[in-house]
Amino acid sequence: MQLTVDADLQTRIQNSIATDTSVNYKRVSVVIMKAATGDVLTSAVYPLPPIHNWDQLTMSIPDQNKLAGWLTTTDLGFTYATQPGSTAKVLTTMAAFNKLGLDAANVKFHVSEEERIRTKGIEPDETGIITLERAVAKSNNVYFIKLANQEHLQEDMADLYLKTGMFLHGVGGYFYGKPVKNDDQDEKWKQLWRNTEFNTKPPYDPNHIRRSRAKGISGMAWGQGALIATPAAVARLVSGVANNGTLVANRFVLKVNDSVTGIKEGIKLANDPQYAAMITKYMIEQSAPKVPILGLSVAGKTGTPERIWKKQSINDGWYVFFAPMVKDTGNIVVCIRIEATKGSADAVRLAGRHVIPFLLKKGYIKSIIPAAGDRENSRKRNRKDIEPAETETPDTTNQ
Question: Taking the domains of the chain in order of start, what are their residue ranges?
Fold first, then answer.
């Protein structure tokens, strides 16, 4: 039997991360997959499981939480779900396109200074009239809260949660593969969500959005509240974007007795491939300022969710991105989560230091090249908007 995992790639990434003192006292997950085939290349972790300490390796989660630091006893990338933060805005954007068609690109909302969720740092939520493209590129929390509620996107978002394996209100997701013929159970989960997350109190009030900003549909819209996801689920979502709107289920076994296992049938995330192309454009713009750190141009989305761990508020740093393959058609998708860190800037730096160099060295990826008509605009945006990733600030629910 031959697995799809590139053991050399995974080992190099893990060993490289282990030399980085900036991730001491933190926990890291790195999931890498091929969008066109669903092949899982890597599910790297730091720290590594304590394979020589049986007591620690079999320790329960409550007992682990009594320890001072982190312990890895499971495949974090595929089986440990947490709030995905602003990476979930990719899903909210997809839901908007699925419901509204290409007109979603023209949906605009006014964001006032009083409404802002992210108020500190060099890049607070922008104010004024905001478009969908600008909201993705600048990760505007208020825009997505308004978009999800006022365009009633919850059912479309729910469909995408079920397809990609995200959990809402503790149910509905999956770890390694979506159960087959699960329509009846999916409908039960959706009915539960209609009675809970889609019906929270106080209800959404467009004149006072901060009251419900982390609850129900509002929280879902920007990856907070009751929405949790594994890095693998977020990678599957972005694989659908990278694969023209179609998600191919993950493949873990490449060959059995020299017989290649078949690529699984894809499921449609985007109702039209044009929607995936639009989201790709927005994600390239979002990651353009990070090119000096990454060393190449990618389509990506950052996230800095806030959550409670050991009765303390912490931030995680997320970065999900994709880039075209060198030797084959399709794209490579990478999702990084660093637990208990300053924010997404740390995940971006980790990608540039410990992931992308090995993908380049092994000939997996190359830079995304924007369409000819976009190149000059992209250069102008970079000169005007470029901001060091170090200045990114958390998407916080308690400011």
Answer: 2-391
More confident residue, 120 or 325: 325
3-state secondary structure the chain: CEECCCHHHHHHHHHHHHCCHHHCCCEEEEEEEECCCCEEEEEEEECCCCCCCHHHHCCCHHHHCCCCCCCCCCCHHHHCCECCHHHHHHHHHHHHHHHHHHHHHHCEEEECHHHCCCCCCCCCCCCEEEEHHHHHHCCCHHHHHHHHHHCCCHHHHHHHHHHHCCEECCECCCCCCCCCCCHHHHHHHHHHHHHCHHHCCCCCCCCCHHHHCCCHHHHHHCCCCCEEECHHHHHHHHHHHHCCCEEECCECEEEECCEECCCCCEEECCCCHHHHHHHHHHHHHHHHHHHHHHCCCCEEEEECCEEEECCEEEECEEEEEEEEECCCCCEEEEEEEEECCCCHHHHHHHHHHHHHHHHHHCCCECCCCCCHHHHHHHHHHHHHHCCCHHHCCCCCCCC
**What tens digit of pLDDT does each residue of 25-38 get?**
999 999 999 999 99
Output the CA–CA distances (angstroms, integers) from residue 312 to 41, 111, 323, 399, in the order listed: 34, 31, 36, 16
Instruction: Name the residue type at position 121.
Output: G
Residue 382 pLDDT > 80: no
Annotation: CATH topology of 2-391: Beta-lactamase (3.40.710)
| Single-letter amino acid code for the residue at 218 | S
Over residues 237-262, the mean pLDDT reads 95
**How much of the chain exceeds pLDDT 90, in percent?**
80
Q: Give yes or no for residue 123 having a pLDDT over 80.
A: no
Q: How many Cβ atoms sit within 10 Å of the Cβ of residue 267?
A: 13
pLDDT in tens, 215-225: 999 999 999 99
Report the C-alpha gap between 390 and 399 in whole angstroms. 20
- pLDDT tens across 154-182, in order? 999 999 999 999 999 999 999 999 998 89
**Whether pLDDT at 384 is above 50:** no
